[in-house]
């Protein structure tokens, strides 16, 4: 079940998972993911973000700036209060029902470093819940998840869009979870409009919270192990 | 041999730990007002807690994930937070009721007002949670809780017409003077008492505490499928003695002293002495479990280090949560609010919160990513689904019934 | 801004309308509902007191158990009495209301006397007190039935 080196969906398999250190001691939750945007548009998962500065904005996905400003206002004397804790993706040894690090927990979380020259740092939560525009105008779907290609650095290769609420996906549309049949059918019905867009076919407008797609979403490919 | 001893110990503590203040009060109230007409509700509730405790225990043993890990992973941070808030309010309410219950039990022997005992009881609860080893706490309190078997002995001694009891249960024989809405309200309360969410928080977190592995699944199942139903029989005995002794006199229960009166009638001083030990152990054990559950759930949501398997220094925020909630519980009890009333409210609000807890467990118990080959079988899924529907109906009905009946007056 | 401040001032006034210090004046049906609940409670508490005295006589009760139970019963009895006495019954059922009120007051006294006897350990008085409690038990039940 070492998923990090297989195909995986970021929100389903990585976000909100428990992070444990090499001794099994608990470190925190994956409160958000750091995505590094390269000049050629490539999006790579480069770090786990932890702590209130990562979690608070996710509590209000469409008003995350306000949420973060509120968090700052609670203790304005602290510099970098909006900067979340960070663990490099290279320190992650394994991913199954928890995210296991290669190191001990003491001092493992550091303030998120600035981006290197020419790169832009994004957050997974900014992409999630973004609106989607198709070739013929706005779609009713929103971004619910994104797929990562295996490799040394997990790279975003597709975006999953759906009309359902984010909480209703729960993996029933994607992996081998098919039971209880009645529940699976009900949840699939609510998410019958779930589809996939290749990253090559979209332009992400990060500030406008919009994904502009040049094609209509295609059917979801099933994840294999 | 050692293995059998472990299984036997597990089953015994499961029986002794099954009953808490909610079960004591609700079963006695129901027995004293509705006789055995709700026997089947208890049976259905006990089967339900068995189904879901087994599922959450299996998830804990195989994936080391306790309930609120699953809630956050499956519902996301926002719905998860809503769920956490609701579940913690209910569990905190139960925690208050249990501490109040310990104080009321001690009042029965000491004649010291329970209000004076509350800070002392809370302090001892906190001390146990801070200092005692998890397994010692579980075993000692669970075994002492077995003293509540005097309810069953008392029932046998009173020798009611068993055929009549069975027929009351089978016919849902509501006494003429009561309304069906009131009956339904108490049925919901009884269901909430049997399936209180903290039981699953505690059971799954306890599995992680005791470092269960897939090899322990057999022991875990023995605890659940033998221990819990026998605990359920204790619940039925409480209702049974109330039906035999209190119902004919029109004595509707509203204090802990009345709950124990039938045992005094049937068994006298010695029975009553054993009963009070049982009261104290059962409520004290449940106070520990609910107190821990508050800490467990909050820490699991935020990913903090939790548990008594590490030193207190390694899980400081977890222990801070326990301390804060214990102090808050004392503060609430010192307003002189009637702990029995808190208990009655806590079981009804438990009923409201049931689907929040059980839905994510059912989903994850089917996910091979977590459970590999140990995913739910047909039976677990069939029952799980039936109960999910039932829980949803109960949850939706609970508050309207509470308003319509004026809390069952 | 001004409007919201005004709102803040007016809202509590509106909320407290009808919460004045006059006795609640229910109609006959509402009064009967309350009275019936109070009588049920009184039946339960008088029954409890009688049962505790009986078990004390049989040496079935331990230490402070009986006293603690009766202290709670006395407390609850007081609340039952108050729930009816603080209502202003409609004139049409004044006679009935005063009967219920008297009965509840008598029950209140009886439970209190039982508690006092228990605390002072006056065992000789138990049979007489129980006899009185049992008679009251029947009267309360009858009164509850005819409401």
Distance between the termini of chain C: 55 Å
Gap between N and C termini of chain A = 8 Å
Q: Any low-confidence stretches of chain A, pLDDT <50, length ≥5? A: none
Domain count of chain C: 1
List the total number of helices of chain C. Answer: 5
CATH fold assignment of the largest domain in chain A = SH3 type barrels
Work out the radius of gyration of chain C.
21 Å
Organism (chain B): Nocardioides phosphati
Subcellular location (chain B): Membrane
Keywords (chain B): Membrane, Transmembrane, Transmembrane helix
Main location (chain B): membrane
Topology at a glance:
The complex is a heterotrimer of chains A (225), B (409) and C (147).
Chain A: E1 8-9, H1 10-13, E2 18-20, E3 26-29, E4 32-37, E5 43-50, H2 52-59, H3 64-73, E6 85-88, E7 92-95, E8 98-101, E9 110-111, E10 120-123, H4 124-127, E11 131-134, E12 137-149, E13 155-162, H5 181-190, E14 195-198, E15 202-205, E16 210-213
Chain B: H1 2-18, H2 21-34, H3 39-63, H4 67-110, H5 114-131, H6 134-145, H7 150-158, H8 162-171, H9 180-194, H10 197-209, H11 217-246, H12 256-302, H13 316-333, H14 339-364, H15 368-371, H16 378-405
Chain C: H1 2-16, H2 28-57, H3 65-85, H4 94-120, H5 126-146
Helix pairs in contact in C: 2-3, 2-4, 2-5, 3-4, 4-5
Description of the structure:
Chain C: This is DUF4142 domain-containing protein. Chain C: It comes from Nocardioides phosphati. Chain B: It comes from Nocardioides phosphati. Chain B: It is a multi-pass membrane protein. Chain B: It is found in: Membrane. Chain B: InterPro entries: NRAMP_fam. The complex is a heterotrimer of chains A (225), B (409) and C (147). By secondary structure, chain A is α+β, with helices and mostly antiparallel strands. Chain A folds into two domains: 3-124, SH3 type barrels (Roll), CATH 2.30.30; 129-213, no CATH class. In chain A, 16% of the residues lie in helices and 35% in strands. Chain A has helices spanning 10-13, 52-59, 64-73, 124-127, 181-190, and strands spanning 8-9, 18-20, 26-29, 32-37, 43-50, 85-88, 92-95, 98-101, 110-111, 120-123, 131-134, 137-149, 155-162, 195-198, 202-205, 210-213. In chain A, strands 1, 11, 12, 13, 14, 15 and 16 form a seven-stranded mixed β-sheet that branches. In chain A, helix 2 (52-59) crosses helix 3. With 409 residues, chain B is mainly alpha-helical. Chain B has one domain (2-405): Amino acid/polyamine transporter I (Up-down Bundle). Chain B has 16 helices and no strands. Chain B has helices at residues 2-18, 21-34, 39-63, 67-110, 114-131, 134-145, 150-158, 162-171, 180-194, 197-209, 217-246, 256-302, 316-333, 339-364, 368-371, 378-405. The longest helix of chain B has 47 residues, at 256-302. By secondary structure, chain C is mainly α. Chain C has a single domain, classed as Four Helix Bundle (Hemerythrin (Met), subunit A), CATH 1.20.120. The termini of chain C are far apart. The chains are: A alpha+beta (225), B mainly alpha (409), C mainly alpha (147). Chains B and C meet through helix 4 and helix 12 of B and helix 2 and helix 3 of C.
